[in-house]
Amino acid sequence: METDLQIAPVTLSPSAAARVAAIASKQGKPAILRLSVEGGGCSGFQYKFGLAEGQEPADTVTETDGVRLVVDDVSIDLVAGCVVDYVESLGGAAFRVENPQASAGCGCGSSFAI
Known about the structure:
Structural class: alpha+beta
Shape: globular
Strand content: 35-45%
Mean pLDDT: 82
Radius of gyration: 14 Å
Order of helices and strands: EHEEEEHEEEE
Low-confidence stretches: 1-6
Strand order of the largest sheet: 4-5-2-3-9-8
Distance between the termini: 32 Å
Number of domains: 1
CATH architecture: Sandwich
Helix content: 10-25%
CATH class: Mainly Beta
CATH topology: Hypothetical Protein Aq_1857, Chain: A
CATH superfamily: HesB-like domain
């Protein structure tokens, strides 16, 4: 049985979308969060977040509550299936990536291995 349901390659949680919207509003920027992956960090790759002015033609774009999450075409293979969440704890508040592809990570949560 075939279905038309498609799973987004990356997802922005409602709490992360709300936080991006608040930050963007304070800075007078569009509510667009860019997620990219760079070499480095404790485990080999690290996540990088930043507000974006817009999206590039090759970007993968998903939207939650009016907030866009954009990922470049090189990084998307490393974060496919991820959920970007915003977590507040006693240790502080941060965007956190739940990456089902990661075989290892580090305590800071910003670095991973595949």
